[in-house]
Design goal:
Length: 295
């Protein structure tokens, strides 16, 4: 009898995980059966093909100084690279690691401050009237305009880069979170209040779950703009990092390293955005089921 209870409990505890995994695999199989992945590969092939033809075959005037496809990939995967940077050199992974560390600090800080601020901006009209006008004045200021102040305010070379990366990510996270709260139908809050829920319970059980799709959409945008800001910051005041690599490669006329840095930046940025998307699916399993059933 005791074994039967244990087996029943184990099956019950594994049920949601199996269901979530099944829905994820279903969405993956549906994606593979659709034309989307093949169109994606065709898109990559067109871009790479045009790059190869324009630089190495047609030798178009505007592309005459640009490194070719075979030169870049030959350098990138060379055990003895001409310019000293490839997948086989420790310096390559040092640049990636430092950029990832800066992104992690800035993104976590922007999420920790931006999500609560966005929730309260959307939830409280009085709070929004005080804060949102200032927020909207600061938000359009370009990141490069903050560079002198960042260097003056923060000591060293690391803090200014993290601050500049944080700014753009913070604004995107806050704004999307606020829009998520504003998108919630007021009838849900009224219904919860009529059932005896306190204001805090309405905020916790209605507002936060209702805003989560917008929050994670904002976080995906946030981590993308964080990479933009990171590169700008590393070009100005950073030491090491992918932005620093791209800038110094241009100054040293090592053009293949510029392309390697750009492609690496795109791959790492795509992977980080995908991780945020996976985390969102995990925390919003009801949303995963809804999308799977919608497919």
């Amino acid at each position: 009898m005791h074994d039967t209870v244990l087996n029943t409990d184990a099956a019950t505890s594994q049920g949601p995980e199996v269901t979530t995994m099944g829905l994820t695999m279903y969405r993956l199989s549906t994606w593979l059966k659709s034309p989307r992945p093949y169109l994606m590969f065709i898109g990559f092939a067109i871009v790479l093909g045009f790059w190869y033809l324009a630089v190495e075959v047609w030798k178009l005037p505007r592309f005459e100084d640009m490194p070719g496809l075979t030169e870049v990939f030959g350098e990138w995967f060379n055990k003895d690279p001409i310019y000293g940077l490839s997948v086989y050199t420790p310096e390559y992974y040092t640049h990636i690691g430092i950029s990832l560390r800066r992104i992690a600090y800035a993104f976590l800080l922007a999420t920790g401050l931006g999500v609560p601020l966005g929730l309260f901006l959307g939830w409280s009209k009085t709070f929004r009237e005080f804060i949102f006008p200032l927020f909207e004045v600061l938000r359009p200021i370009p990141i490069l305009a903050w560079v002198p102040l960042a260097i003056i305010i923060f000591a060293g070379s690391e803090s200014p880069v993290v601050f500049l990366t944080f700014l753009a990510s913070f604004f995107a996270t806050t704004l999307n979170t606020m829009l998520g709260v504003e998108s919630i139908d007021e009838s849900y809050s009224r219904a919860a209040s009529c059932l005896g829920a306190s204001r805090w319970q309405v905020f916790r059980h209605v507002v936060i779950p209702g805003a989560m799709p917008y929050i994670f959409t904002g976080l995906q945008i946030s981590i993308g703009v964080a990479w933009f800001s990171l590169v700008a910051g590393e070009m100005v005041s950073g030491q090491f990092g992918l932005g620093y690599l791209i800038n110094t490669s241009y100054m040293m006329v090592e053009y293949p390293k510029i392309i390697i840095g750009m492609i690496t930046l795109g791959i790492v940025g795509f992977a980080s955005s995908a991780m945020v998307r996976v985390l969102g699916d995990y925390l919003m399993q009801w949303r995963v089921r809804e999308l799977a059933l919608g497919d």
